[in-house]
Structures are given as structure tokens and as C-alpha cells.
Automatic annotation (TrEMBL):
Biological classification of the source: Bacteria, Deltaproteobacteria, Candidatus Desulfacyla
Signal sequence, renumbered to the chain: none
Glycosyltransferase 2-like domain span: 25-159
Names of the cofactor(s): Mg(2+)
Any Pfam family matching the protein: Glycos_transf_2
UniProt protein name: Glycosyltransferase
Amino acid sequence: MHYDTALRAYTSKRVEEIESADILVGIPCFNNEATITHVIRMVSHGLATLYKGMRSVIFVADGGSTDDSREVAKEFQLKPWQEKLVSIYRGPGGKGTALRSLFEAAERLDVRVCAMVDSDLRSITPEWVKFLLDPVLEKGYQFVAPIYVRHKYDGTITNNIVYNLTRALYGKRIRQPIGGDFAISKDLARFYIEQDVWDTDVARFGIDIWMTTSAITQGFRVCQSNLGAKIHDAKDPGQHLGPMFRQVLSALFSQMERYETYWKRIQGSEPVETFGFEGYMEPEPVQVNLDGMIELFRTGYGQFSPLWKTLFSKDCFAEIEKVAKMDSAHFHLPTDSWVQILYELAATFHLWDVNRMKLLDVMTPLYYARVASFVRQSWEMSSQEAEALVEDQAVKFEENKEYLIKVWDEKAAQKAAAQVSV
């Protein structure tokens, strides 16, 4: 079903009543009764303290929560000069549709800046509001990505996949391309609304990487802001991140197809201007089950190795085979092999038109192998020291970009030949 707007009639009416605002802060929400009040309180306090003279709206965009998230959000008393919207969005279930409703409200209210923060944050402070909004309001940036002080085992998908690919492909060192807390200008909100993605997977789960990639490739002014520690409902990579691996890679690889001519001409990368929190705080530890991840890889190898052998190059599969024979004490999937795996996987995804999610499904055990290797390598390191490993890995992705272009073009030629023979 096609939805021409994500705003329900009562929400549109409420937006009309408010008429206009300077600042809109959106909080996408789904069953976050335990944390939503804290997030609203911090945002409200930050806006009241730091942007006294401006008219602000806080918009809780709910996905049909079955707990009391909406009720507690409605009951919370905001500071003077602040308005509140609490609404169930229209469209496919997912964060993307929640943000679509936010972008629409931003355009209708003609705001100067629109920010969004996750609803499960326990570490948000009033300063987050300033760190996100100021680069747009004061410096003319159009897209502000977050940086957080995170535990070395929080954000394994970002550390091992998303940061590397975004940096190598698009040439910008945005450390958290799927961070969840962003700020954008009104013209970027309008650009997002006009894109034809709202009935696709982007509306369900690929929104963060889509926003970041679109902002870079369309030439919007991009920066990042350090928000300090991120404490939220962190997930054990061995238990919760299989589905996220598939969703994020699907969004990333689809973007690669869309912006192929852009990323093929990018060489190297450059830092982006960084604002916000200065200093360091030790993040909350994240528990990982190392043996569990190695076991998931081995089980996957037992099931899928005949298929992997047909999908990967000979060298690449030989490395995977070698890792499968290692005992847990010496378990290691080298970075060079990981770069090769991801680049070959991107090219194969490009070759396949159907069953793409199935393809990513059978690759998930390889992600567990990589995370297990990273955990073993960084076991004795502080989170700050482990950051050097992440940086080294990102450089390797950049250095091997020619290999990506080579395998991508080879698979594209295969695809074209197959279509001709049909």
C-alpha cells in the first residue's frame, strides 16, 4: 500500500494549530515506556535552557506501542514556549516511517533545524540538544552525525562494517553513520521527503545509513558532533545482531548500486569537522559471549560452506576454511580477509536480483567470526586503545578499494551476459 503522507489527520491538524516553530526535535518510539520520559525531560530542559527565545516542538513519533509509551509521553509537562506532538505514524512499521513523519512536520512548521534522538537513551543530557543543533543554527551545516564514547564491544556492526564501507566508498570519515541521533536543516528534510523510498525497506530499518549516504552524495554540508557516552539498551552481538546485520548490509549495498558512479571516482577519505563534547569518560561495559560467537560461526560453516565455496573467490574461501579449523584459543579472521569477504559479498549482492536477504542470511556466521576476532584482539585493551584497531581496519578498506571495483565490475559483466543469453 502506498502512503502519500506519514502524518495522521489529527497530527496534521495539530501541526496547523502550532503554525510555525524554530526547532523540532523528534523521538521515534516503540515500546519505550521505561525510558521515554527521561528522554523528553532532557530534551525539554536543554531547549528551555539553551534556546530560550526560540519556539520549540517535541514530536514523539510512535510505531503503535503496546505499552504505555504514548500515555506517559502525553502526560509529561513541557517547559513554557514548547509544544508537544504525540502521534502514531502512518505507513510501514519502522523507524524510517517515524522519521518521515518528523521531516514532514519540519517542513510544514518551517523550522530552522530538525533533530532526532533515540527513545531508549539513558545517557542523554540537555547538552546533547546543543551539540546537535548548534552546527546547523550557528555554522550552516545541513547534516550533523553523532559520535559517542562507546564501549569497544558496543556498535560492532558500525566498527566492523558501516564505518569502513562509508569511509572507503564516499570519502568522508563519519564515525557513526548509523548512530540514531542526528540533526538536519530544513532543506535536507525537504530533500528526504521528496525521495521515492518510503514504501521500501528504508522506511522499515535502513533509514540511518540512507540519510547519511544521501547527505554526502547530494553535496549537503556534513559534520559530526561528539555527544559523550552513549548508554542505551546495548545488544550482545552474538544474540541480537543477526537481523541487524542483514538489514544494515541490505541498505548499504542497495545504496552502493544507486550511487555507483559517485563512489567509483572517490579515492581516499577526509575527516569532517567535529563539534561537541570534549574529553573522555569510560563507557559502561558490554558483555559478549566469545565462545558463543565462535560456535555460531562453526555451525554456519558446517551448514553453508559448500555454498560459500561457490560464492567466494578461491583465495577468499581458503582463508575462511583455515579459520574454521582453528581452536578457540587461536581463533582469528584477519582484517585483510574480512575486507575481501565484504567486498566480494557486495559484488555478489549486486549480481543477485532475487533472494538477496537469503544471501545475507547465510553470510551472518562470517560476521560473528569477525566480531569474535575483534573481541580476542582487543581483550586486554581499553575502549580508547581498541579504537586504533578500528582505524587500522578502515584504512585497509580504503587501500583495497580497487579490489572492490574489480570484483564489482566482473559480477556486473556476468549479470549482463546472463541477461543477453536469456
